[in-house]
């Protein structure tokens, strides 16, 4: 019904991922096969294109209210995550990273500590530093394919009076890990006990692989959900990153008013009418497409894992429970970061996010974006096997 095998030429588009100049700047190879930045090479759900066309044909693209997009979003979260969000709790930012920027600016002061769990989506570190706050890292423990939290270390860091905020990536990019309800509650309890404000980035929360269960913070009950800030978005889920629409859910009225002040300060409230149409259509009519996309992505993962296990058995492929980003350990090659980056980008010819971007403990890993037609995954596998079996 949906053709995820279709190869769509993106090299000529404004999209960053396949743009030869961007690939040259980032990887020193304009022809590298791009499996880096997290967007999909699939056409969006037909309902989204239809909705955008309708607005395009209307021909007037003036200042707009989020209106229907908020309702569609709230209904989606109720259906998909069993969380009753009141529409007035929802604020919008152009992106989830902007939401995190605003949260840092709103609730912390320069010099304050912001806790994260590396290896984690590297803009977390970048924005903490650009706001002149301190990164406080409580690294996740990676033991083979097992991922765990060092709670003693986390608690010690949360107890430091300088630590004011915790930014949690749930599910986790790049480890593809889903936190259990018990883990989430334990993390939040520690933060609440130490007056550390919790901001949860759930941008990958709809990209849950077959057979896996994701617990959104909203499902932990009011005692948890009403005290935190949760950012969600249709951008990863429905391949709408360029549409610039994210939802920030803040049930607490005072925290919400503070956040709203910063949205006004930077005039972030203006909405794009094409995005509103796209978001509404995605949440109202995109479920079937998403479920099919997730199946397809997971089949890509199984293919990648199977091929690497067979032909490059020393490479450890972490389980993919969520996200469309596979994380593979190439430490057996014995290369430093620069040499591994050069090997993949220039010799093998695949553009990937390098593990060390996310944190030192992920040096030697590479992240593969699997939201792409199978033919691209096959090509990547072939390139790797040819180069690495030597
Ligand atoms: C965990 C996480 N947060 C945020 C983003 C980016 O969000 P946005 O483009 O909405 O700023 C990404 C993109 O890959 C991500 O993985």
Give the structure's gist in a few sentences.
The chain is α/β, with parallel strands linked by helices.
Descriptive report:
The chain has 390 residues and is an alpha/beta fold. It has 14 helices and 15 strands. It has helices spanning 20-27, 46-58, 67-81, 96-107, 123-130, 151-159, 181-193, 222-225, 253-265, 273-285, 287-311, 337-348, 355-358, 374-388, and strands at 33-34, 90-93, 113-116, 134-137, 141-143, 146-148, 163-169, 197-201, 229-232, 246-249, 316-317, 325-329, 350-351, 353-354, 365-369. α4 (96-107) packs parallel to α5 (123-130) and α6 (151-159) runs parallel beside α7. Residues 38, 95-97, 121, 169, 173, 201, 203, 233, 235, 241, 246 line the site of pyridoxal-5'-phosphate.
The whole-angstrom Rg is: 21 Å
Uncertain runs? none
In terms of DSSP E residues, the strand content is 5-15%
- Briefly note the structural class of the backbone: alpha/beta
Number of helices: 14
Q: Assign a percent range to the helix content.
A: 40-55%
pLDDT averaged residue by residue = 97
Strand order of the largest sheet: 2-10-9-8-7-3-4
Measure the end-to-end span: 41 Å
What binds here, in terms of ligands, is: pyridoxal-5'-phosphate
Biggest pleated sheet: 7 strands, mixed
Topology of this protein?
Blueprint: H1 20-27, E1 33-34, H2 46-58, H3 67-81, E2 90-93, H4 96-107, E3 113-116, H5 123-130, E4 134-137, E5 141-143, E6 146-148, H6 151-159, E7 163-169, H7 181-193, E8 197-201, H8 222-225, E9 229-232, E10 246-249, H9 253-265, H10 273-285, H11 287-311, E11 316-317, E12 325-329, H12 337-348, E13 350-351, E14 353-354, H13 355-358, E15 365-369, H14 374-388
Bound molecules: pyridoxal-5'-phosphate.
């Amino acid at each position: 019904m949906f053709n995820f095998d279709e190869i769509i030429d993106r090299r000529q588009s404004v999209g960053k991922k396949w743009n030869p100049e961007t690939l040259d700047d980032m990887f020193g190879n304009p022809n590298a096969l791009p499996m880096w930045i997290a967007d999909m090479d699939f056409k969006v759900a037909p309902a989204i294109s239809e909705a955008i066309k309708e607005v395009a044909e209307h021909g007037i693209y003036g200042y707009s209210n989020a209106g229907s997009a908020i309702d569609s979003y709230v209904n989606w979260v109720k259906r998909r995550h069993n969380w009753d969000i009141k529409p007035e709790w929802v604020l919008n930012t152009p992106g989830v990273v902007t939401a995190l920027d605003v949260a840092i600016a709103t609730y912390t002061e320069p010099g304050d500590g912001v806790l994260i769990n590396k290896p984690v989506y590297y803009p977390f570190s970048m924005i903490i530093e650009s706001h002149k706050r301190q990164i406080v890292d409580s690294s996740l423990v990676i033991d083979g394919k097992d991922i765990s939290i060092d709670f003693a270390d986390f608690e010690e860091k949360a107890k430091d009076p300088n630590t004011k905020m915790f930014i949690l990536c749930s599910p986790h990019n790049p480890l593809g890990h889903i936190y259990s309800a018990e883990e989430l509650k334990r993390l939040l309890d520690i933060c609440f006990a130490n007056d550390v404000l919790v901001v949860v980035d759930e941008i990958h929360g709809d990209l849950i692989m077959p057979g896996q269960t994701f617990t959104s913070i909203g499902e932990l009950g009011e005692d948890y959900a009403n005290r935190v800030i949760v950012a969600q978005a249709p951008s990863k889920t429905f391949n709408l990153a360029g549409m610039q629409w994210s939802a920030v859910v803040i049930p607490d009225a005072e925290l919400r008013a503070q956040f709203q002040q910063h949205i006004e300060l930077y005039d972030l409230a203006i909405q794009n009418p094409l995005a509103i149409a796209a978001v509404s259509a995605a949440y109202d009519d995109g479920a079937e497409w998403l479920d099919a996309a997730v199946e397809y992505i997971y089949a890509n993962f199984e293919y990648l894992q199977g091929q690497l296990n067979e032909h490059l058995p020393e490479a450890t492929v972490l389980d993919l429970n969520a996200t469309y980003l596979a994380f593979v350990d190439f430490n057996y090659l014995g290369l430093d970061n620069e040499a591994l980056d050069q090997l993949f980008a220039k010799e093998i010819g695949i553009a990937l996010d390098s593990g060390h971007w996310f944190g030192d403990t992920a040096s030697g890993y590479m992240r593969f974006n699997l939201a792409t037609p199978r033919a691209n995954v096959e090509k990547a596998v072939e390139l790797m096997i040819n180069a690495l079996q030597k």
